Amino acid sequence: NMTSFIRKNIPNTLTCGNLFSGCVAITFALGGNPEWALTWIIIGAIFDFFDGMSARLLKVSSPIGKELDSLADDVTFGVAPSCMIFWQLGVVEYPDFLSAVKSLIPFLAFIMAAFSGLRLAKFNLDQRQTTSFIGLPVPANALFWGALIYSNPGWMNSAFSWFMILVMAFVSSWLMVSEIPMFALKFKHWGWKGNEIRYGFIILAVVLMACMGMLKAWWLIILCYFLISLYTDFRKKVSVTKEP
What we know:
Strand order of the largest sheet: 1-2
Oligomer: single chain
Largest sheet: 2 strands, antiparallel
Structural class: mainly alpha
Radius of gyration: 19 Å
Low-confidence stretches: none
Shape: globular
């Protein structure tokens, strides 16, 4: 019936909203408008959050929904931030010895889009990532780059900014497919005990957004997320080695 049809297609409709948001973000990114590109990446992230939640609540998960979700995520969180880096590398200064290839260097940004797709494919097949992540999630990577380029820190206008951007893009690409454990904001219950890291991170994110602004804070929030994940993993390894 009609009710069943609508209920079944709610998650896929939200996923299409994510895909639509990613396409809009790409147009703003290539047009040199990082503020609106980041805004649409965040809108895509909101759609991405609710499509999975609605699928679980309505119990209408499907193989086509999983494939559609990966496609939308690679567009919004892989291609869109890569386009932002592409634009940024197109406006920075290059040393004279790179004058012959400086028009080609920005295209290296799309290596990150390829690694985002690889990360999503690995995630779909990895049974270890049901309650946490292994490697940097693609939405986190996209928010980091979108906010960083929008914030435009001083070093991005230096003579070596092209090199720093490329190195960071290659490192973040590797982090997405790495074996580094990272916590997820997935709550089994709403109590404090067992969720200290999650609640602490949420509080930290709110404080940073209040201090730096809703858009500009995301690069620092994601950096803190990565560092907290490293610390949490280190503590777990230490506690295991101390066990008799």
